[in-house]
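@channel sequence for tomorrow's demo:
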Amino acid sequence: MKILIIDDERSIRNSLREILTEEGYVVDVAEDGVSGVKAALGGHYDVIFSDIKMPQMDGITAARRISEE
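structure tokens (generated this afternoon):
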């Protein structure tokens, strides 16, 4: 299973990536909504975890843009 984590807080991205990788998942990360949308549209992800409040583009807007494509 391939997972994308979108969060502007490095510690949260790294913690989630570490935990999920140890459980055997393939995990990519993005540091904001803009890069998260680019990553999501450039690859296939089974699950996307996203923070809601982020600078530049919030998680709700990112989810809408991803689902529109």
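heads up for whoever presents: Strands lie at 2-6, 26-30, 47-50.
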